[in-house]
Amino acid sequence: MAEPTEATPPGGTPISLSEPERLLLARLQASPSVPLGEPELVAQSGLPIETVRGSLQRLRSKQLAVADERRRETRSLTPRGKAALGAGLPERRLLDALRAADRPVAPNELSIGELTEQERSVAIGILRRKGLLAQGAALALTEAAGGREPWPEEEALRALGGGDATAAPESFAALQRRGLASSVFETERFWSPSSEGRTVEVREDANAVGALTPGLLASGTWKAHVFRPYDVRAVVPHRTGGRPHPYREWIREFEEILIGLGFSEATGPLLETEFWNSDVLFMPQEHPVRSIHDVLAPLDLVAGPPPGPLLERVAAAHEGRALPGENDPISPGWRARYDPAIARRPTLRSQTTAVSARFLASHPAPPFRLYCIGRNFRRDAVDATHHVEFDQCEGVLGEASTSLRDLVGIFQALAEAIGIRELKFRPSYFPFTEPSLEGYVRHPRLGWIEVFPGGMFRPEVLRPLGVEVPVAAWGIGIARLAMVALGISDVRELYLDELPRLTAGRV
Amino acid sequence: MPRATLSRAHLLAQLPGLPATPTLAERLFPSKAEIAAETGDELVVETTADRLDLLSEEGLALHLQGSAGLAKGLRHLPAIANLDPAPSILCDPSTAALRPFIAGLVVRSPEATGIRQEHLDAAIRFQELLHATIGGDRRAASLGVYPYDRLQPPFTYQVERLNAVSFTPIDGSNEVGAAEFLRSNDLARRYGALGASEGTILTLRDTKGTLLSVPPIANARPGGEVRAGDRTLLIESTGTRSARVADALGLLSVVFAAQGWSSAPVEIRYADHVEDGRAIVAPRSVRLTEGGLTKLSGRAYSASEVEHLLSTSRLSARSSPGGWMVGVPPWRPDILAEVDLAEEVILARGVRPEDGQIPPSVTRGRRRPESRYHRRVAEYLLGLGATELHTPVLVPERLVGLLGRTSAIELAHPVSDQFQRMRDVLSLSLLLALEHNVRSGYPQRFFEVGPVVERDRTAETGATSRMHSGAVWAEDRAGFADGASLVDYILSTFGAAGVREPVEIPGTIPGRSARLRVAGEAVAEMGEIAPTILDALRIPVPVVWWEIDLDRLWPLVRRSETA
Predict the structure, then answer these.
(1) What residues make up the domain containing A369?
(2) Is the pTM of this model over 0.90?
(3) For a Cys-Cys bond, which of A56, B77, B289, B295 suits B263, CB 3.0-4.6 Å?
(4) Which of B243, B394, B413 sits opposite A292 (nearest CB)?
């Protein structure tokens, strides 16, 4: 931080100066008639260039220093220009190669002048413009190609390569257009004290110190000094620290609500088989969402067979047969043959309900309250409201007395926890729940939006898994809730990776 | 969601006495249908996939009559009196290879003037909708409607040689041979493969040889040409799935049942058995128990309440010990079992927020220990000043190729070139973030704790999902030592230490990358990103990357983390 001392104009009010400003003003006062360049002041003061530049600007704003600004152009060869300087311009190399061939040559003869395809194309165009190549499919030199004198752009190239930047403007511009040369304009500043700066008296308390150093601390000599006060209004450097991703942070908060309601976390694979993604959930094997238009599948992955006993029970539920060891079917099922080959097809998980299915298969005994927040994938074109990847918050609740009223109650609790008071329900449909419903919440800006889909797992789902209690289940599109909470209207922003936005503002 | 454009006038003509308020949209909110758009007479209606009957004016009218109290109970298809001979279809075994199932139904208008044009239009609209939905674009099931009074039963469904079939297609005016029809007709080009194969074609003829149709492609003239004024119609459904064939026919029957038509079953004579066709038209009985309803809904219903609610759902309920036997019409294939009836009762009453109850928790909620450990890693990295990312698992091919991650799982039909492979390392996503931020100034420090997917022949699905923690440091002096020291630091927070070994990692500078092992297990990789990569991504500063496989590290640090 800056360490102010004071400069007092004759008869005037003291002006606060930082230590670098004081030091630089003293240098300028020592050379009142010869302006000093910034590199010179760096050398004299021992300060970093950034500090010198910043301090001089502040001296100017305090009207204690003035700058004479001169604009300087620096011309140089680009890497391609340097290459052309060594090997020759492409058109020269093509001309030399055609002269050596001493015959018309087809353009696609790759060996011509060892030019790249792009260089050859450029060179042909230039030689034609110069009138050195005849029109026609074959590359044939005209009579004008007999001259040996260098072209102006070759001279400019050589001159720049030798450090001579005085080439004719049109020749240099031609090299620039071709990306062979570049020019950089810099502003040089030469500093002098202003009329006030020449006369200002810079006072320094001989006993004052700037930085508190380890040396001062170790020796105890700090006790004999006073510390120069800082200019606390000075501009300080912009710093950023570690920032959690806002969407991740929001999800963690949402998880806390679920944990508070007694739910425990579960997880599952992102790449599933159709058995776990759909079959166990009593989705008919010809369900439209399994078609190529909705589900994403890996190209060349081979999955293993599903667990045999469970496969047989799921097949029985689909086909409307009694489960092994039972007498009556659960229902007529889908009245179609169940195909185990479809069951082992790998697919990208399209719903976190697959995680619930895996959990119930391994933990069928109640009570259980489970949640899973995870990625799913569907064949959606990406736009403001759709993304090929989306997060779902899956939940299941299974206890002896679980009913639809519990599901409604959980939805109410979740809505209230995120500040939503108004909720209403309408029927919905999922192949694995009955009844199925959709909870709508009223958003102050967006109106009624559907956010809570859920229902009671069907017996055709539960009984093959060995679950003997009613189970309420839901799969909340948590991205939509997060968008409402975070005040964003484009789902793509959930995958925000722009550093300035991630490190700015409230998390 | 399935949707259809209905005629408002034709719908409202079936709802005399329906008050103007609430509006149709409001009336439909507690149902599985909703109005997506309205323009003039056109009403675009969407339903859930299980209630296709609501996508016909007649099916929707039946529902609205029930919910508005205009009519109640099951709408039957009464039997046609004096239909002699009883209609039947002979299903020749030759159809087995192409399209083995057929079902039929005869319906008759209560009015001597026969079917009205708007009613016929509505039936055809619904027929096409059923083709597109439950019919699987006609493959699983397709429907045909014919002027029964002008035909002579019994009918024959069979396969014939192409050169034996010649007819005028319903959308044409000239008679053509079947081979020419398959070559030149628009419908035939689309559906020909479903009804023709190896020089043969499916046909449906009456006993006089009149061609009704070439299922499932097109009807023929005049045998398959229904006109306003026709009074008795034959409806048939063919397909590859017997359940779909029956369901499609049952669904289409709502268009006639709602208008008071009567019906007669069509007997189907297969080579090895006969189906009398009665199951298509007769309401089926499904049992609902009082206990099942109470358990699912969480509340007690009185018997009269249940019977009233089922009645407004256009079902019939007959009391039986411990519950009810419920009559379900053929256009409700969604009702399979007791739970489906329970849903009818619950939804007919309506689900209200005040029904909710938060069940007292008998379980204690918690995160998985692994998740707490993942979060700790993230918190350490936040403490080091890094910015957290949340990036897609799917990454573009160009980046996979650039980094040489050829083992990353490729998608069969990617949605776009931005989402072509499943990442197997986080570095792919982290470098994408650096590429997106080349104008944001440096230093840049990003990290993510997120999922990756690796091929795994031993896994049930052929792949394993793993959690990784990865970071990139992009700044003037970023170097290998930064990555290595940060990995050491993270490991040390879990009481672990590893040994680095040199390894060549594609995309990193040779000689400046390493793998780290803990207790012999490879748990991390790190390296300086190669200038070729930086150049391709236009990143102007050095980048060091490191990545820890948190799932592999977990068994090695679990004890200290869960203690």
Answers:
(1) 248-502
(2) no
(3) B77
(4) B413
